[in-house]
Specification:
The chain has 234 residues and is an alpha/beta fold. Helix content is 21%, strand content 27%. Strands 1, 2, 6, 7, 8, 9, 10 and 11 form an 8-stranded mixed sheet that branches. Helix 2 crosses helix 3 (214-228). The longest helix has 17 residues, at 111-127. The chain is globular and about 50 Å long. The chain starts with 16 loop residues before the first strand and ends in a 6-residue tail after the last helix. 38% of the residues are buried.
Length: 234
């Protein structure tokens, strides 16, 4: 499928949640425009929910809690202000971006639970590759332990971030979503303090020695989605 943000017609949809995959890089502003339009249509009852799987060209986004001092190399890549929650994050080739346009009103009107479900979804998908993801208090996203790295000064295991989560709601419909590091250039994270966390690093599935592709991750996400979300629809 091309990177154009177009979806099949209503008659072509067989599922309540439509899955769209873009094979080419999608520029950030076009993605945001599509998400906002689709979210409005979902809220109005004019479109199905949508999960959009894509990659962006190298760029940084600044969430609503971003601190300018965490943008350490502002001239490295384009920087886009974003209305999603969170701080600075990187997007680029080799990273699976998952934009979730879902009706949270139908899923309990509970934003905290919805974010927890997104975390559970990522952890479940990672589990298909025998990788254990963790949620840590005060640190948004999904983390993996790195016993192969030196311990922290306080004796704790080193941990690296493998997935970021940041959403926005409009009329109880979500957009923005998740990014999972499959095989991005990890050096590109060096222009920011990712999500404001300085004492932990960033990793990817391939960096961890797993021969995983974007398509593999897509299959895992589709397989685990219904286990987390399908039963919640009112």
């Amino acid at each position: 499928m091309t990177s154009k943000a177009t979806c099949p017609s209503k008659s072509a949809r067989s599922l309540m949640v439509e899955w769209v995959t873009s094979d080419n890089l999608v520029d950030y502003e076009s993605a945001v425009s599509f998400m906002e339009t689709r979210a409005a249509a979902i809220a109005a009852g004019e479109a199905d929910e949508c999960i959009w799987l894509l990659e962006h060209p190298p760029l940084y986004t600044a969430g609503t809690s971003a601190k300018i001092e965490d943008l350490t190399d502002p001239d490295r890549f384009a920087v886009y202000p974003s209305k999603r929650g969170g701080q600075y994050t990187y997007h680029g080739p080799g990273q699976r971006v998952v934009y979730v346009m879902l009706n949270v009103a139908k899923r309990g009107h509970d934003v905290r639970r919805f974010v927890q479900d997104l975390e559970t979804w990522v952890i479940s998908a990672l589990g298909e590759f025998n990788l254990t993801g963790h949620i840590r208090e005060g640190r948004v996203g999904v983390w993996v332990e790195r016993p192969d790295k030196p311990r922290l000064a306080d004796g704790r295991l080193a941990e690296d971030k493998i997935a970021a989560i940041g959403i926005r709601l409009r009329k109880w419909v979500s957009f923005h979503g998740i990014s999972i590091n499959v095989e991005p250039n990890l050096e590109h994270f060096g222009g920011i303090v990712p999500c404001g966390i300085q004492d932990h690093g960033v990793t990817s599935l391939v960096d961890l020695g797993l021969p995983v592709t974007l398509s593999d991750v897509d299959v895992a996400l589709k397989r685990s989605f219904s286990h987390v979300f399908a039963a919640e629809i009112d």
